[in-house]
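Next comes a concrete protein, fold included:
___
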Amino acid sequence: MEWNEQSIIKACQKQSKEAQKTLLDKYKNKFLGICLRYIDNQEAAEEILMDSFMTIFQKIKDYKDNSFEGWMKTIVIHKAIDYYRKHKNDPIMANIENEEWRAPKKY
């Protein structure tokens, strides 16, 4: 099937697994890069990414006609910030905070 943004949204609202996979494949690399800018840990970033897409799939029925990518990106960023807040006292996060600041990686 030929997918455009509107057809993906409508199919995801009907819980189409094929549409969900298409959406995930289309945005996973871009959103993983965002996660890695907040949490410089591949495994944690992938966990945040999957949690973000679960939320996107659960809340897509509430999506209104505005920037779809922006709506999803907001969810990803909030999930990354929540993860950071929850884990900021973990030993690995404490080590990151004590390091000299450096510009985020570009992916």
Q: What stands out?
A: The longest helix spans residues 17-38. The domain at 17-97 is CATH 1.10.1740.10 (Rna Polymerase Sigma Factor; Chain: A). The chain has one domain: 17-97. The two ends are 30 Å apart (CA to CA).
